[in-house]
Amino acid sequence: MKISIRHLDKTLIITDKDAHYQQDKLNVFSISDNTKFVELDILINDWLNNDDDCVFLFSNKELLLSFIMVYLPSKFLIMYAAGGLIQKQNTNEFLFIFKKGKWDLPKGKIDESENAEEAAIRECVEETGISELEIKKNLGLTYHIFNQKNKWILKITQWYLMHSENHHKLHPQYEEGIEKAEWIKKQEVQNMVLSHTYLSVREILMRAGVI
Length: 211
Hints:
alpha/beta, eleven-stranded mixed sheet
């Protein structure tokens, strides 16, 4: 089991498998049943405040799951979100938004009255003006830590691959700081998007086979 948690341009990998990371030039920290919460606090804070990627290597899967389900909610405010990688039907074009100087994918917080699929479709429609969306594939979760109003938040986002037959003009949600919404051809993503996007977006593009 492996989960990648992002903060700015760095990654914290949490895993219970060690074969691969023993050969990598990464900061690897072994976590056992004897590791205390205060020690985890120190490791997490060091990672948040430094520039290096690192690995938390758990001695077993049960301990890793406890870290996810018990420790992380005690350390961070958990926010659940959903979003989509939208492909224009029968083409190799994908829909991106441009916000805060970065190419991104439409996403947003899941409301109490909706499930992840409903939230993903709603957010994509609101942020881009797209319609006629159909979910084709579950692309899994991403984990992203950020600081907002002096509170540390862990955003867990559920992603979907979607298709749309809508070829009408897009309407970016300017009031949310989205400067443009644009269809970008698969062969142009490498040069146009990857140098100006987030690690989590790169991960979703890899899962979908776009890059």
